[in-house]
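testing teh design pipeline on a random one, pls ignore if ur not involved
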């Protein structure tokens, strides 16, 4: 074998393609290493043998070939080149698909001397194709069984698949819906908008949502929402869209009904001639619409105050009106404002009767900040009442003449009839009293009526007597009267005064009252939950926006103060403004904590010092009737806790204890060390600080104790608590790795224990140390990214003062374009939450190409959700020194 033959032999044997050489008799005279590996035979085993005798090839479907039909065997030297697919049989017996090419070989004289056959194994390729078909089959099966309509497009926007639900809903044939045929089922008025939304999104390869009306199979149109997202392959190649269409017609109908209901309410208020009023309890400012001003004889455009209100009330009605308002705004009473009074027109002098109702609104500290309600002009009704009284006087004579008929009604009525003196003594009652209260008439007449009334209602009864004594007829008054079995029955009264007596007609409404109370409790719990949810969302959003607003304010004031702008008086004003801004920043942090946008920040806390610091506040909160005792063990180790949240929990527990002791008592707060040495319960084995809040109040029964930590469960009654105090304290302890336990007994008192884990660090170690800032001028290029222009401008001024050359961008995408254009930053300062790319996403992207780039994330939220712990961060608003020290710390850390 010469050198050329050796090189050719090496090339053939190193080929990945299996190669067979056949002579003019179609017997194998050579096969390379790839062919040996493919067939399992060595060259010496195949020499001078027909190829079909070695590999037993078959058709692609597995059936054997007759030798005269075998494509490879037909590739004799005198025939043309052939190619195709077959199934080979390996030496070990397994089958595998192949693709082959058979070409004749010509000798030096141009005559055929043999055949060369090239074979490629298709096993993996066939397996991938089968897997793809299986995947597509699974997707189509899943899509066809989906409860919503689904569709798929190719990269050109051509709809390649609509699931069975689409065709069931629209009644289209499969061939009609593909491509852009699906638009034929869209309402003609919505078709252009639907197509434009899709085409625009497809051009930008972004998510999109669009509402349109879709024709149902029965020809009716229903509102639907179409939502879709682009698909990309593992190599990033754009594959088209996948989307879903959901029937939202019922939701749209509900929204329309809600709008109609709101309009009906507005019209009802107008038709009913009901006026609304609103009083700011802090400033005394009042909101009166023209209808209410007309009740006081005041022109629509004249501003009014609380003094205008009192001055406009008739002198004889001012005391009761003022008393009703004060009771409604009193944090302890929180009474319903329900009063009728006369007004004297300020401009026209006309006397009018007004019926007003309302209630006070109280903040979390129990302070009334608003009183709102309605007012109705009842002058005509009062005139009718006067006429009614006159009519009653005339009828009284007729009743006297028809005593027999009256006695019949008196004896048979199920309502309670009574004649009562203003001394509270029953003068006469009908037999219905016996059936309703379980006592005979003689016994009831011998008992003063006041003694039969529930103690909680006696004050209202005394006030009622005053109203009756002034000659006022009371059309509806409810109180509780004792039954012979000790229970209480709710009675709804109508009372008419007559000289030294008054007549009363009562009806037992106990069952109706219990049903109404249960419904009101359920509705109040729902309203409270919705209110807290809405307040949390609103507070979190407002606090975030305030942080963005405060950032340029704090930065600008800090710049003016540092540069000594203005005279001494102006500097004092700047200092005052800075102090107010700092207070605003603290307020925003509290708002974020309330909205739960600020997670726990546990540090090492001296519980004894914290409790001692809270003692005075707890004493002033609980009032003089409650004695506050503080007991703290000596040498307590620090506890792991969030001091702000712990103070709030301690204050909530103190308020709960105060409410449990309406007649006064002792509130004992103690802090001791404790250990858990056995497994079991909610506490892990370890060392804890046990913070106990115990009272000598009314305590809880077993059923109440079981539900005590449920959110919104409260025994204080409607309007007297959120039911969140114990649940928030329970959640705080659990989040810290501790627990909350409660021991309580009805009539004895309650002891709530907060178990806090011992901190592994000393007090003060967890505090974030402040870097003194730059010792010298900084230098280099700073890339500043923030979507708020005023915030970005303020921060840029600070960075330029530090010595940086600042380049600004209003989004993460704009920042990446600057980098792509050649900008090489030495520092990245970026906001976190921005439209499109977040600050964290930007930092991660840039660090792929600039791994040593110093990064500082700033955010209007104090929360760290979504911000990795390895990315330094700074909360808005911030001053120059805070920004300086934070950047200096980052640069110092990068040098290590």
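output:
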């Amino acid at each position: 074998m010469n050198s050329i033959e050796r090189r050719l032999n090496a090339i053939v044997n190193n080929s990945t393609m299996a190669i067979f050489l056949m002579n003019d008799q179609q017997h194998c005279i050579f096969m390379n290493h790839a062919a040996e590996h493919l067939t399992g035979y060595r060259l010496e085993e195949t020499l001078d043998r027909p190829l079909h005798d070695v590999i037993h090839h078959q058709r692609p479907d597995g059936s054997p070939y007759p030798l005269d039909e075998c494509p490879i065997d037909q590739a004799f030297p005198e025939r043309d080149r052939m190619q195709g697919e077959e199934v080979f049989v390996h030496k070990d017996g397994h089958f595998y698909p192949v693709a082959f090419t058979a070409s004749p070989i010509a000798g030096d004289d141009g005559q055929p001397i043999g055949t060369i056959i090239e074979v490629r194994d298709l096993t993996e390729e066939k397996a991938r194709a089968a897997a793809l078909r299986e995947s597509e089959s699974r997707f189509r099966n899943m899509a066809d069984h989906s409860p919503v309509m689904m569709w798929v497009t190719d990269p050109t926007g051509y709809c390649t698949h609509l699931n069975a639900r689409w065709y069931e809903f629209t009644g289209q044939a499969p061939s009609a819906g593909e491509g852009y045929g699906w638009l034929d089922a869209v309402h003609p008025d919505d078709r252009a908008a639907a197509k434009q939304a899709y085409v625009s999104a497809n051009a930008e390869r972004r998510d999109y949502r669009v509402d349109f009306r879709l024709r149902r199979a029965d020809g009716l149109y229903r509102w639907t929402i179409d939502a879709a997202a682009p698909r990309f392959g593992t190599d990033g190649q754009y594959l088209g869209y996948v989307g879903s269409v959901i029937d939202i017609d019922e939701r749209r109908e509900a929204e329309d009904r809600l709008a109609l209901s709101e309009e009906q309410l507005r019209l009802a208020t107008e038709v009913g001639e009901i006026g609304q009023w609103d009083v700011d309890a802090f400033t005394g400012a009042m909101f009166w619409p023209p209808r209410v001003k007309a009740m006081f004889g005041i022109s629509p455009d004249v501003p009014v105050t609380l003094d205008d209100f009192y001055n406009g009330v008739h002198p004889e009605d001012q005391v009761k009106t003022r008393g009703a308002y004060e009771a409604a705004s009193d944090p302890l009473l929180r009474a319903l404002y329900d009063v009728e009074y006369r007004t004297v027109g300020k401009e026209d002098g006309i006397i009018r009767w007004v019926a007003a109702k309302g209630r006070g609104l109280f903040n979390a500290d129990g302070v009334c900040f608003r009183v709102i309600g309605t007012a109705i002009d009842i002058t005509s009704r009062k005139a009718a009442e006067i006429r009614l009284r006159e009519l009653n006087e005339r009828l009284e004579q007729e009743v006297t003449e028809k005593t027999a008929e009256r006695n019949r009604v008196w004896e048979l009525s199920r309502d309670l009839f009574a004649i009562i003196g203003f001394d509270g003594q029953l003068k006469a009652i009908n037999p219905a009293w016996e059936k309703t209260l379980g006592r005979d008439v003689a016994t009831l007449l011998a008992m003063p009526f006041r003694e039969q009334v529930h103690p909680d209602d006696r004050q209202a009864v005394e006030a009622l007597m005053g109203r009756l004594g002034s000659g006022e007829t009371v059309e509806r008054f409810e109180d509780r009267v004792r039954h012979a079995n000790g229970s209480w029955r709710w009675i709804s009264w109508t009372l008419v005064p007559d000289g030294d007596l008054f007549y009363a007609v009562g009806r037992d409404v106990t069952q109706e009252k219990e049903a109404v109370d249960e419904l009101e409790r359920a509705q109040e719990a729902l309203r409270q939950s919705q209110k807290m949810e809405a307040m949390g969302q609103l507070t979190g959003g407002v606090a975030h926006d305030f942080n963005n607003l405060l950032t340029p304010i704090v930065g600008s004031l800090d710049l003016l103060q540092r540069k000594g702008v203005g005279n001494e008086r102006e500097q004092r004003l700047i200092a005052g403004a800075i102090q107010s801004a700092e207070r605003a920043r603290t307020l925003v942090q509290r708002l974020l904590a309330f909205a739960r946008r600020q997670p726990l920040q546990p540090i090492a806390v001296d519980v004894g010092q914290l409790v001692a610091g809270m003692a005075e506040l707890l004493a002033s909160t609980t009032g003089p009737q409650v004695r506050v005792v503080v007991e703290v063990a000596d040498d307590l180790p620090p506890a792991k806790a969030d001091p702000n949240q712990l103070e709030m929990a301690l204050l909530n527990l103190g308020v709960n204890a105060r409410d449990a002791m309406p007649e006064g008592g002792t509130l004992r707060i103690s802090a001791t060390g404790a250990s858990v040495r056995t497994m079991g319960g909610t506490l892990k084995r370890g060392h804890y600080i046990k913070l106990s809040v115990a009272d000598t109040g009314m305590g809880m029964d077993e059923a109440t104790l079981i539900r005590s930590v449920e959110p919104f469960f409260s025994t204080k009654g409607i309007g007297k608590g959120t039911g969140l105090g114990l649940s928030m304290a329970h959640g705080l302890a659990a989040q810290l790795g501790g627990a909350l336990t409660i021991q309580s007994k009805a009539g004895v008192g309650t002891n709530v224990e907060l178990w806090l884990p011992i901190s592994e660090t000393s007090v003060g170690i967890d505090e974030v140390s402040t870097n003194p800032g730059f010792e010298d001028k900084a230098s280099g290029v700073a890339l500043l990214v923030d979507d708020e222009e005023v915030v970005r401008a303020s921060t840029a001024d600070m960075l330029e003062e530090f010595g940086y050359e600042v380049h600004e961008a209003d989004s993460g995408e704009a920042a990446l374009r600057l980098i792509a254009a050649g900008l090489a930053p030495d520092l990245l300062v970026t906001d976190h939450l921005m439209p499109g790319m977040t600050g964290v996403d930007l930092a991660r992207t840039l660090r792929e190409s600039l791994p040593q780039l110093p990064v500082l994330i700033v955010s209007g939220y104090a929360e760290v959700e979504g911000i990795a712990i390895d990315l330094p961060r700074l909360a808005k608003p911030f001053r120059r020194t805070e920004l300086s020290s934070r950047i200096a710390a980052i640069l110092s850390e990068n040098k290590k």
